[in-house]
Amino acid sequence: MSRLALPVSAGAAMLVALDGTVLLMAQPGMRRELDCTTARLQWTSTGYLVAVAALLVLAGRLGDRYGHRRTLLAGVLGFGAASAGIGLAPTVGWVVGLRVAQGVFGALLQPGTLALLRLCCPPERLGRAIAVRTGAIAVAAGAGPLLGGVLVDAFGWRAVFWINVPAAALIAAMVLTLPKGQGSSDGRPLDPAGAALLAAALAVLVHALSRVPERGWPGVLPELGCAAALSAVLVVHERRAASPVVPRPVARSRPVAASLVLLLTSSAGLYGTLFSTTFRLQDALHTGPLGAALRMLPLTALMVLGAPLAERALRGQGPRRTALAGVALLVAGIAGPAGPGGGASTAATAVASALLGAGFAAVMVTATGTVVGDAPAGYAGAVGGLKQTAMNIGPTLGIAAAAGAGAGAHAALPVLAAVAALGLLPAAALPGPRHEPLRGAVVGGA
């Protein structure tokens, strides 16, 4: 195992996670300096999100075929270059365009961060490596608003993008020290039609979900219908394609499919709850931004502390029991009597935040470990891309569900609890305690 494999994987994942959270603190200053409307400013987030979600699976397949070391290096360097461009952008149009480019490169690097662990970690160390990566992402996401606020106050909004440049350069230097590997063993060309259909379906779906807070569910029904039609065409095409964009061994893997659905429902419940809770704390309870962030701090702490505990539970109890426990904790944090919308006290919010963090840590470690560990040989990048796609669509779905519930932020919690509870079904379909991950050789270089 390369000693730098885990630092590279965690560092690249942290780079993307941090970028998403610090942007929230930069947008008010960006709007003032660039003199743009809120609608145009929103595209700095939407454009990035659509580009990432649309291309993650294709990026993973490219890594499987041509080597994850290459795609990861290209993604990190491109991400850093696009960040520097945003730091110099003269107008909001340039910012939006470069954010889309940043999303493309972000998609290119993300599947490789998971494939790298599968390729470089012995099976007995894979769970621990995934736990470390999960904790690192939690730290980055939790520290993002604070770091962003400090940077914006001291240097202006452009600073939150400039910090990506040295971080990307350092990660790229570490990637270059990793051993070179070979591409996929099957030698089949990528299917451009399938890739285009998948990208289009995902792009339309994510764009539709991202507009629910503004338009409501009725306003996005035509786009949702279009996404459904594209998906139907994709399914027909994939059944006939000689080399489908979602490889048949991956599509037939029950543990992988169950883990992806679990990640989708759990991330939707979590992020929808965070969205609702933030508005409830600040608008209804008149808590300031810093006070709201402090009340939710147990979530980050329990994700960091819970990840290694979840890894131990995964080894001792197996994926099914660990995932079921994680979903139960998550649902309790959303809908229980101590839920974020169930009381105004700091203690109630802290307890609910802790439940959310512990539950999501268990789900993340279990589902990620199952996705990566059970990936059919040669397709670590494909399953990594699918996993990251679920983790991009889930939060967007959760925020759409919260915003579309009506009657205030508190009314969304039962809906979000129901969405999270759906994860009990795929959790129950995961393997039992005696399950052993696939241990076959994985082709496709790091």
Automatic annotation (TrEMBL):
The keyword Isomerase does not apply. One of its GO terms (cellular component) is plasma membrane. Residues 5-435 form the Major facilitator superfamily (MFS) profile domain. InterPro entries: MFS, MFS_dom, MFS_trans_sf. PROSITE patterns: MFS (PS50850). It comes from Kitasatospora setae (strain ATCC 33774 / DSM 43861 / JCM 3304 / KCC A-0304 / NBRC 14216 / KM-6054) (Streptomyces setae). Keywords: Antibiotic resistance, Membrane, Transmembrane, Transmembrane helix. The chain crosses the membrane at residues 42-60, 72-94, 129-147, 159-178, 190-210, 256-278, 290-310, 322-339, 351-373. It is a multi-pass membrane protein. This is Putative drug resistance protein. GO terms for molecular function: transmembrane transporter activity. SUPFAM superfamilies: MFS general substrate transporter. The keyword rRNA processing does not apply. CDD domains: MFS_MMR_MDR_like (cd17321). It is found in: Cell membrane. GO terms for biological process: response to antibiotic.
